[in-house]
Amino acid sequence: MNHELISPQGLRIDGRRQNELRQISIKLGVLDRCDGSSFYLHGNTKVIASISGPKHPSKASSKKDENFYFNVRVKFATFSKNGERQKVMKNSKLLGEFELNLKNIFKSVILVEKYEKSQLDLNIEILQTDGGSEICAAVNAATLALIDAGICMREYICACTASLTSDGIPLLDVSHLEEISGGPTLTIAALPRIGDHDQSVSFVELSQKFYLKDLNKIFDCALRGCEKIRAILDEAIRSNANETAISELTDN
Amino acid sequence: MSQEELYKTINPVKYLRNFVEKSLRPDGRDLLEFRPTIINKDSIATAEGSAIIKLGTTTVICGIKAELAEPDSSEPSNGFIVPNIELTKLCSPKYRAIGVSLDSQIMNQTLYNILFNSGCVDLTELCIAKGKLVWVLYCDLVCLDDDGSVLDVASLALITALKSLKLPKVNYDLDTKVIKVDDTIKKGINLKALPVTTTFITFEQKYLLADPTSDEESIADTFVTIATCDGQLSYIYQPGGNSLASEQFESLIKQAGKREKYIISLLENIFE
């Protein structure tokens, strides 16, 4: 079954090469009522992330008496999945795990010292998904929204998936079809390598199993994917900042 | 904070009054001028019908998911349309973070009324087998940004999504009770009318403002929402507040009619 994942010409089911990312489209500052927002399109997944804060902690938050309050809320739109209407999941374990993962990923990279006793709210709305690793899109969208809001961060956090065919060829950025075809899927969120500063990984999730000897291959593939995504995110941020700067200058 | 923002925060009523007395609004519009409208259809591939509408910065996305169900025994050839809007902290700090708020429940009912008062959709079109199988259209709206006039944007998103709806062909065998869904053949539903809503507010009992922003809504005396279709009045909603003179009402209805023409021309452009 696995050998269909990559044809003899080196093309995958959707026509990509082994180390090609799916189409990514980014828009920043899409929402007006919050401090930072982003629209992130990756293949068939569309996500909107919005950041509200830093602000005075709400009553509910201040009961917990922490140093920095970071609330994450993820919502799947009811029309987001193919097939059945997505029922509203209340207290769902899956959502809880998703939110906790995002919380931990970002708490480690936001410069918390600058936001003591403040609250930051992250809202993720998943508008469309084909079922594959929404956490990657959520992490990338959240990074963009945080930067759009001007929240101080150590580095970009980029998330990517990678898989392995039965012949041991690593595939970058798996689509849902490839995911359910049976190969293992490695999802990582990493702070990519820039200059001398080495890359570090913040979140790893693996489904299925593969031989330990293939670990390096698939890990490297995913990390290189994160680097590529970082470049794409960075370019979007810079061109957006450029446009904003130009419009501010011409206004004055 | 700039001087202007400070003044606006300290005395929002006087701030708006200073503009309105000169027949202008803080964003430079005339009293009865609307913000730019952007309509986008078929935005979500996983939904059977979808639309994103922007009015200034107010943004609502509508996605329709169709499911099969048994009809009500009292109306065996009628399908169901269930509009449901989500107003959460994502779109404005005035709403609750999670859960269903009173505002969204009121808006759900208002959207339903607007849809059925105008005779927009004939529910018998959603019937597959009388008394046995009908379509249920779950129209889920998510408000992404609330800068006033959410009802206008939501109802426009709803009818645009309904117009872009593509339902697969369903065969129901009465004898074997087997349901066969054919995804390759897709057909839309026929909309008999396209209701367009316009929201106005009154300010200090004498000024009428069309398409209020969130700041203007918070200091308004009263709201009036008027829905028209085919140049005819189909729904009026005024949730209490100060009274309006009948001449004011008449002028509002005329404005609503003009707005409807403009919106219909936009829709015709998209759906050619």
TrEMBL record, chain A:
Q: Which GO terms describe its biological process?
A: nuclear mRNA surveillance; poly(A)-dependent snoRNA 3'-end processing; rRNA catabolic process; U4 snRNA 3'-end processing
Q: Subcellular localization, per the record?
A: Cytoplasm; Nucleus, Nucleolus
* Entry's Gene Ontology molecular function annotations: RNA binding
**Could you tell me the keywords of this UniProt record?**
Cytoplasm, Exosome
Q: Which domain of life is it from?
A: Eukaryota
GO CC terms in record: cytoplasmic exosome (RNase complex); nuclear exosome (RNase complex); nucleolus
User: Residues in domain Exoribonuclease phosphorolytic?
Assistant: 20-151
Q: What's the chief localization of this chain? A: cytoplasm
Q: Which residues form a coiled coil?
A: none
Gene3D superfamilies for this protein: GHMP Kinase, N-terminal domain
Output the Pfam families linked to this UniProt entry. RNase_PH
- Subunit structure, per the record? Component of the RNA exosome complex.
What job does this protein perform? Non-catalytic component of the RNA exosome complex which has 3'->5' exoribonuclease activity and participates in a multitude of cellular RNA processing and degradation events.
**Family indicated by similarity:** Belongs to the RNase PH family.
Protein's name in the database: Putative exosome complex component RRP41
Automatic annotation (TrEMBL), chain B:
What UniProt keywords are attached to this protein's entry? Cytoplasm, Exosome, Nucleus, RNA-binding, rRNA processing
Q: Which Pfam families match?
A: RNase_PH, RNase_PH_C
Cellular localisation: Cytoplasm; Nucleus, Nucleolus
Write down the InterPro entries for this protein, in alphabetical order: ExoRNase_PH_dom1 (IPR001247), ExoRNase_PH_dom2 (IPR015847), ExoRNase_PH_dom2_sf (IPR036345), Exosome_comp_Rrp42_subfam (IPR050590), PNPase/RNase_PH_dom_sf (IPR027408), Ribosomal_Su5_D2-typ_SF (IPR020568), Rrp43 (IPR033196)
**Molecular function as annotated in GO:** mRNA 3'-UTR AU-rich region binding
Record's Gene3D superfamilies? GHMP Kinase, N-terminal domain (3.30.230.70)
- Under the cellular component aspect of Gene Ontology, which terms does the record hold? cytoplasmic exosome (RNase complex); nuclear exosome (RNase complex); nucleolus
List the SUPFAM superfamilies. Answer: Ribonuclease PH domain 2-like, Ribosomal protein S5 domain 2-like
**Locate the Exoribonuclease phosphorolytic domain: which residues?**
33-168, 194-258
Q: Name one GO biological process term.
A: TRAMP-dependent tRNA surveillance pathway
| Major place of residence | cytoplasm
Q: Which family does it belong to?
A: Belongs to the RNase PH family.
What is the designated name of this protein?
Ribosomal RNA-processing protein 43
Organism classification:
Eukaryota, Metazoa, Ecdysozoa, Arthropoda, Hexapoda
